Nitrate/sulfonate/bicarbonate ABC transporter ATP-binding protein (Terrihabitans soli), 258 residues
Amino acid sequence: MTMVRLNGVSKTFENGVQALDRFDLDIGGGDIVTLIGPSGCGKSTALRLIAGLDEPSEGQVEWPKGRPEIGYVFQEPTLMPWASAFNNIWLPLRLRGVSRADARLRVEEALELVGLTEFAEAKPHQLSGGMKMRVAIARALVTQPTLLLMDEPFAALDEITRFRLNDELLALKQRLFLTVVFVTHSIFEAVYLSSRVVVMTPRPGRTAEETAISEPFPRSEAFRTSVGYAGHAKAISSALRRATDESRLDKAALEVHS
Ligand SMILES: Nc1ncnc2c1ncn2[C@@H]1O[C@H](COP(=O)(O)OP(=O)(O)OP(=O)(O)O)[C@@H](O)[C@H]1O
């Protein structure tokens, strides 16, 4: 069942840069869909449009069942350096006028979800990179979203931490019945996490190809080392290459005709 649909969405910024060109995307409830594509192809723009932080120039963002609560996780944890983990996680509720006392149970629940109960009073500089990202995820979860938008959240982390957070994300998704739209540059991360991978063309971004990863959840190390996993990664790598080559050929053809 569709939760959100991008229907022929184009986005051109005031400076004339066109980030998206008739981009179609259908996210079903419970999906975990990854957008992958060359740098600057409009992945973050697509997330911002879904979040309602920006408006499409053409096309529509449609919510057949109504717009749900949305959580947003950025590449950088963007925590307030002077504030404790607890106070950082409280922020979205505080902005909605919820007092610290009234927020306590929900903040503690969010801390527990990301395994940081013991670190409620720690300041960001006392936390590792992975722990800071867990705080950022807890902050996104504290408003109890059903849709989680994640923009390269684990890109800055070492591979071991990244793998661990991938597993934690999948566990959270199952536990909280989340729908997730995830952006990454890592083909392996896309395969491990996703029910579907959307390969985008270079800017202006469109859907080049879509691949279903039908491996059941929960996934584990056994999947990471399986032949099927390697096969999916290879297929997505080829799709990315095709998307880039075709776009280059299209541009060359345009130049010849102009
Ligand atoms: N507010 C803005 N004004 C003008 N141009 C913008 C704006 N935001 C993004 N762009 C441009 O739109 C294009 C798409 O940007 P976007 O951040 O969506 O790409 P991306 O695929 O997420 O890139 P990356 O993988 O490098 O993070 C880029 O060329 C970017 O410079």
In short: The helical segments are 43-51, 85-94, 100-113, 129-141, 159-176, 187-193, 221-224, 227-257.
